[in-house]
């Protein structure tokens, strides 16, 4: 909540991203990543969003292997791909919801390694 409030101009976009992820992936876990940004987990790391100066970045940690028929994903890294969102209308594009759903399906079918983003540490904390 505090991160979204500090987003100022992009607070509505950040709120919309957060709501869309929670609605699309029922039961996903929201947490603060090691980089101090909101992140989501569903059978492994799902996505993270970062408020930047000119947009909100929605990054998929396994984005390089996600289907992207709408051509929304950007990036050239080994695994991570992202979408730049400047308005609430950008968040509401059907392709964004499809990417979130595809990331959740991928995690159900082939869960990510426990070494990603401190997953094992968070799991131990939840069990305690």
Model description:
Helices cover 37% and strands 20% of the residues. It has helices at 2-5, 11-24, 88-91, 94-109, 119-127; strands at 29-32, 38-41, 45-51, 56-60, 81-85. It has a 5-stranded antiparallel sheet. The model has no long low-confidence stretch (mean pLDDT 88).
Radius of gyration, taken over Cα atoms and rounded to an integer in Å: 14 Å
Number of helices: 5
Q: Please report the distance between the alpha carbons of the first and last residues.
A: 24 Å
**Sheet of most strands:** 5 strands, antiparallel
Number of strands: 5
Inertia-based shape: globular
Short characterization:
This protein has helices at residues 2-5, 11-24, 88-91, 94-109, 119-127; strands at 29-32, 38-41, 45-51, 56-60, 81-85. The protein is of the alpha+beta class and 128 residues long.
Features:
single chain, 37% helix, 5 helices, 5-stranded antiparallel beta sheet, 128 residues, alpha+beta
Element layout with pairings:
Blueprint: H1 2-5, H2 11-24, E1 29-32, E2 38-41, E3 45-51, E4 56-60, E5 81-85, H3 88-91, H4 94-109, H5 119-127
Antiparallel strand pairs: 1-2, 2-3, 3-4, 4-5
């Amino acid at each position: 909540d505090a991160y979204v409030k500090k987003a100022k101009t992009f607070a509505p976009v950040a709120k919309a991203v957060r709501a869309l992820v929670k609605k699309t992936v029922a039961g996903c876990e929201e947490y603060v990543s090691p980089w101090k940004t909101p992140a989501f987990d569903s059978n492994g790391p799902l996505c993270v969003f970062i408020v930047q100066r000119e947009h909100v970045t929605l990054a998929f940690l396994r984005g390089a292997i996600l289907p992207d028929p709408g051509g929304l994903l950007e990036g050239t890294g080994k695994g991570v791909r992202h979408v730049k969102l400047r308005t609430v209308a950008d968040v509401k594009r059907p392709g964004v919801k499809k990417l979130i759903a595809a990331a959740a399906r991928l995690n159900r079918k082939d869960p990510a390694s426990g070494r990603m983003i401190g997953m094992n540490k968070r799991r131990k904390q939840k069990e305690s």
